[in-house]
Design a protein that fits this description.
By secondary structure, the protein is α/β, with parallel strands linked by helices. The protein is built from ten helices and seven strands.
Length: 210
């Protein structure tokens, strides 16, 4: 199974790109969605213990947690030490499940792919990218987003040009959605039949945590 790492800074179009892979029947692990699931369950008591008063009815209140983290890199590091291992466990289960099901390829949609070293656990890396002004317009159009929040998020992410330099493939999203989709279609076809090496090693080394 070929493991594809899909990444890009906030507002660059990861979700749109991931949806195209799904349309082709390729399974996608969404790290952000997994974090939200953990906030609503398994991680909530751990986060409440580390950051008292940030949960409500057994779920993390994202607004309260974000306020606690804003401008506090030590707090962010503490949160990551809680969340990242749980996300890794879920990602490993996803790979084992799809590998056993005979999937030809699988996508790991990870915003911090390079930052956390997860690029070493994929066969191919894809970065979605757009100009900075397009990125800002997209992100600031989101409900509840502010300039301060955006700057804080960007400060924790590798700059776009550096992500591009690390990528095996770069997909430009500053154009009509149909053109981006067509490029992803061509990319998928070019990857079909390529042998994956990471999963076979990981499958031998990773215990079954299901």
């Amino acid at each position: 199974m070929l493991i594809i790492g899909l990444t890009g800074s906030i507002g660059m179009g990861k979700s749109t790109a991931a949806a195209r892979f799904i349309e082709h029947g390729i399974p996608v692990f969404d790290a952000d969605r997994e974090v939200h699931r953990l906030y609503d369950g398994k991680a909530a008591p751990l986060i409440e213990k580390a950051f008292p008063g940030t949960t409500r009815d057994g779920r993390v209140d994202r607004a309260l947690l974000s306020a606690r983290l804003l401008g506090n890199p030590d707090a962010l590091e503490q949160l990551e030490s809680i969340i990242h291992p749980l996300v890794r466990e879920a990602r490993e289960r996803f790979l084992v499940t799809n590998g056993e099901a005979g999937a030809e390829m699988a996508v790991l949609e990870i915003p911090l792919l390079f930052e956390v070293g997860a690029d070493k656990q994929v066969d191919v890396s894809i970065v979605v990218s757009a100009p900075a002004d397009v990125q800002r317009t997209r992100v600031l159009g989101r409900e509840g987003m502010t300039e301060a929040k955006l700057e804080a998020l960007l400060s924790n992410q590798m700059p776009d040009d550096e992500k591009r330099s690390h990528a095996d493939f770069v997909v430009d999203t500053d154009r009509p959605v149909e053109e981006t989709a067509a490029e992803i279609d061509r990319l998928i076809e070019s990857l079909r039949g390529r042998e994956g090496r990471v999963f076979r090693t990981a499958a031998r080394a990773t215990p079954d945590t299901r």
